[in-house]
Amino acid sequence: MASPFNSWSFRFLSMTLTTLAIITSSSVVAQTFQPSPWELAHATFYGDDEAISADMGGACGYNNLLSNGYGTDTAALSTTLFNNGYACGTCYQIQCVQSPWCYAVVPFITVTATNLCPPNWSEDSNNGGWCNPPRVHFDLSKPAFMKMAQYKAGIVPVKYRRVPCVRPGGLRFSFQGNGYWLLVYVMNVGGGGDIANMWVKGSKTDWIAMSHNWGASYQAFGTLAGQALSFKITSYTSKETIIARNVAPENWNIGLTYPTDVNFH
Fold this sequence. Notes:
This protein is mostly beta strands. It is 13% helix and 34% strand. β7 and β8 (181-187) form a beta hairpin. The longest helix has 23 residues, at 4-26. The chain starts with a helix and ends in a 6-residue tail after the last strand.
């Protein structure tokens, strides 16, 4: 016959293990992107006063920045920062410094990378060729620039750092291509704002690796028409992977954008 002490010890051990399991499972949380250290660069501006010209969405393929949720606080990145388009969607805090043109009452602005500022090899890197490698440079929308400095300055020294992108809602997938070639622009990416790898899964297929096309677009070659589509996405910066299931129904179509309820943080 078991002693009361042994029986109590067994119950206590079971309760302890159960409690530890609950604590362990509840402490598993999604990764959160952390700001980077402040660094030095320069900033100019482009576009019109409203930042609604056709080229503002530019190399990232976001098209109409207002309707797609990016607003007017955007930036074109120099080649060094743009990273062949993998920096599309990343977010930065930028502070005007060491210039009489800076607005002292503005601590910083926050912008999203939506375009490429290409090199201008006909100009010296320190006199007009501001986006020539290896320079780190931000060519801001005019409204964003005017929040931190007088536009007459033309160019100002700045401090900058990467920060988490705070996006309302989930990822959005905009479809282009045809029934045999699917080109997907990924928008409204939170957290690091960037994407390293992406896969698509039809309701009749396994996961299919997509290749990076350019900017914020990824492509897959295959017959996916008539299938509900799910996507798996890995963040370039945090390496976190999330899955958006049944994003598009079986009757999905080119030219449409499909929202989700999942995102990075």
